[in-house]
Every structure is written in structure tokens, then in C-alpha cells.
């Protein structure tokens, strides 16, 4: 029988590959959201491996002990979600983590409210401009007041509602200065007779 001799470096590569396979372990993590970043750590907090999940799955390779029973910590994080972690045994080969949406910080809440207010103002400005364009018979003073979210004597209820929005409250024909109706806003009260603004009261300080 003829013996086949392999070059020494081929044998060494083969042995190194076997050793690598023997000391590397796969750990599969299923996670939500699907793009979360996953870390695998020792119980003491040493990072073993990390990877961003693809389609909700991250497969991590890490060195394991011969027994494979050491405790590991799986941690996942994603923008807009609270980080989650779990302890398990390395020889369990996997874990499932479901992240929940995080609570916004005070600064984020302030920014969100400011953005909503700005968006509402943009929409209101578009509504005022469309109203003015659709009513060419309006006087120049009324048009200017509507575009500035203000009022002038002679504006109708519809003009005022488009310009300033709905009032906080209304009082109909209750003897308020002899007017037929009063509309109360935050800093001003408008008095109507019939369908026209006849006077107003502005609150200061």
C-alpha cells in the first residue's frame, strides 16, 4: 500500500482549522426590532461578540470553554427602544429578545411639542391663504388681518374663525356690553352684532 505524504504546512492548516472549530461556538439571537444591535458578554461584562441583526436574527461566534456551561449575557439595543438583556448558558445556543419602545426624554418631548405646534401653524397659514384667495371680495384690511391671525372691525364670524381659530368660549346675547354675542380668546374678547365684529377688549399682563 502506497502512503500519501502531505506537505507539512497543509497538515498544520488542517489542525488549526479543527482547533478553531472546536473552540468557536455559534449563538443565535432572535430580536425585535429587526435591525437591533446585539452583544454577547460574559457574566462579568467582558464583550465576547457583537453584531447588528439582519431580518431579526444575529448569529454570533464566540470562544467557549470545553464544558460550554458558562453564563453569558445577551444584550440588544436599537434607537427609540429600551435596551434589553438576558442571562443564559452558553450551551443553550440561542436567545430571544423583544425590545419595547422607550419613553422620550424631557428634551425630546419638548422638541416634539414644538414640532407639532410648528406643523399646526404651517397648516393654519395655508388655510388662511387659501381662504383669502377664495374670497377676493374681502377688503384689504380684512385680508391683511387674516394673514396675520388678527381681526378688524367689520369681519364676519367666518372671517374671524379662519383667522384666529375657534374661541375658548362664547356668550350669546347675555347683556355683555349690549352685544349679541361675545367670543373669548386668550388675550382678547370680540363682540359681534349680527354677523359683524363691532368692538373688542384686549387683556394685558
Explain what the structure shows.
This protein has helices spanning 8-23, 106-134, 140-147, 157-164, and strands at 24-32, 37-42, 47-52, 57-63, 71-77, 84-89, 94-98, 169-172, 181-184, 188-193, 196-202. The chain is of the alpha+beta class and 205 residues long. It folds into 2 domains: 9-98, Immunoglobulins (Immunoglobulin-like), CATH 2.60.40.10; 106-202, no CATH class. The strands form 3 sheets. The chain has a 4-stranded antiparallel β-sheet with strand order 3-2-5-6, with no helix packed on it. Strands 8-9-10-11 form a 4-stranded antiparallel β-sheet, with no helix packed on it. Strand 5 (71-77) and strand 6 form a beta hairpin. Helix 3 (140-147) packs parallel to helix 4 (157-164). The longest helix is centred in the middle third of the chain and has 29 residues, at 106-134. The chain is rod-shaped and about 90 Å long.
Total discrete domains: 2
Q: Tell the overall outline.
A: rod-shaped
Distance between the termini: 109 Å
* Strand percentage: 25-35%
**Record field, number of beta strands:** 11
Structural class: alpha+beta
**Taking Cα atoms only, what radius of gyration do you get, to the nearest Å?**
36 Å
Helical coverage, percent range: 25-40%
Strand-and-helix sequence, N→C? HEEEEEEEHHHEEEE
For the largest beta sheet, what order do the strands appear in spatially?
A: 3-2-5-6
Main beta sheet, described?
A: 4 strands, antiparallel
Low-confidence stretches: 1-21
Mean pLDDT, as a whole number? 82
| Tally of alpha and pi helices | 4
